[in-house]
Amino acid sequence: LAKTTQPISMDSYEGQEVNITCSHNNIATNDYITWYQQFPSQGPRFIIQGYKTKVTNEVASLFIPADRKSSTLSLPRVSLSDTAVYYCLVVSTNYGGATNKLIFGTGTLLAVQP
Amino acid sequence: EPEVTQTPSHQVTQMGQEVILRCVPISNHLYFYWYRQILGQKVEFLVSFYNNEISEKSEIFDDQFSVERPDGSNFTLKIRSTKLEDSAMYFCASTEPGSSETQYFGPGTRLLVL
Predict the structure, then answer these.
(1) Chain B neighbors of A43, CB-CB under 8 A
(2) How is the beta sheet containing A84-92 ordered, strand by strand?
């Protein structure tokens, strides 16, 4: 599994757009990039996943350049409730019949201030 | 929206005692996982389970640990003889068929071993 590197922490203010970049230089052809969010004393929560280019859902956007060696999670107009740890993970495609463990790093602690 | 549930939310036990942590995965999911998170540390993979057998386990998952799916809904983690260092949040996760990249986590059980 490719190792990921992301900032340990970031600060932002309410209403701002936040971009968290993750590097994964050794990503393999059949790997996806997945982001999870974790609030204190809660389980991680899936945010978004992508393979290449741009993916957008109701929560975030994920930008992946052509070489796929990095990715950027974009949170539009953050609020205080977005304060959490955000994890970037590289996950291999499961073609069925096998489980797929997630390897979490230390993540990025995003602190949103009023 | 369906969700993974876990019981109990908190458990305090004496060192050497057995504990059973319970999880009810999302009903149509086929892949099941246990993770743990020691306070202030990373989320760590323990074990994965598919088709009524362990698919993969980590070095943490030694002979003191076991998992079971006793019926069609519950997925349990048993620690036979707890140690102080087993104190952690334990998270259950499940994934639906054909999409094991997206794992849905439960709220966790906080285990405190005294």
Answers:
(1) 4, 91, 93, 105-108
(2) A9-13, A108-113, A84-92, A31-38, A45-50
Q: Using alpha carbons, select from B75, B91, B89, B66 the residue that is nearest to residue B30.
A: B75
Beta bridge partners of B10: B110
Which parts of chain A are beta strand (E)? 9-13, 18-23, 31-38, 45-50, 53-56, 61-64, 70-75, 84-92, 108-113
Total Cβ atoms within 10 A of residue B32: 23
Below-50 pLDDT ranges, chain B: none
Low-confidence ranges of chain A (pLDDT < 50): none
Q: Each residue of B68-85: pLDDT tens digit?
A: 998 878 999 999 999 999
Local structure of B87: helix, strand or coil = coil
Model pLDDT for residues B8-21, shown as the tens digit of each residue: 999 999 999 999 99
The continuous run of DSSP H or E covering B50 comes out as strand B43-50
Mutant choice from A48, A90, A99, A106 vs B, greatest count of B C-beta within 10 A: A99
- The share of chain B scoring above pLDDT 90, in percent, equals 80
Mutate to test the interface with A, among B43, B51, B59 (most CBs of A within 10 A): B43
